[in-house]
Known about the structure:
- With about 140 residues, the chain is an alpha+beta fold.
- Helices cover about 25% and strands about 30% of the residues.
- It contains two helices and six strands, in the order E-E-E-H-E-H-E-E.
- The chain has a four-stranded mixed beta sheet.
- Strand 4 (about 75-80), helix 2 and strand 5 (about 110-115) form a beta-alpha-beta unit.
- The longest helix is centred in the last third of the chain and has 19 residues, at about 85-105.
- It starts with a strand and ends with a strand.
Amino acid sequence: MTLSHEILRPDGWAPPVGYADGVAARPGRLVFIAGQVGWDAGHEFASADLVPQFEQALSNVLAVLAEAGGEPAHICRLTAYCTDRDAYLAARPALGEIWRRLMGRHYPAMSLVFVSDLLDAPACIELEATAVVPD
Length: 135
């Protein structure tokens, strides 16, 4: 499928690392993916640790996107909610490896928000996304 967006960066801005400053989406099918935590299809957590939960949550996002005929490069926006800043910072190299394996070098507009808790214990990260799948 053809990419449905372009990355935006104002002149003179330093390139962001691991995200895009903005994304302009072309016409297509909008796909809104609810927050996905690190549980499997049966809502079971295999681990309480951040790294495996991140991998599962991102895999869940991509599974929902695939149901709409989309692929990782169609994601325009992703928001992450994480309960442990120190654990996140310590895990950045491992999270980057997972990202590149599942998403390649595609970096949408992203926000990372640290929160005190998530609804589904023992979730420690939740990912939600918006994609534009070309017609």
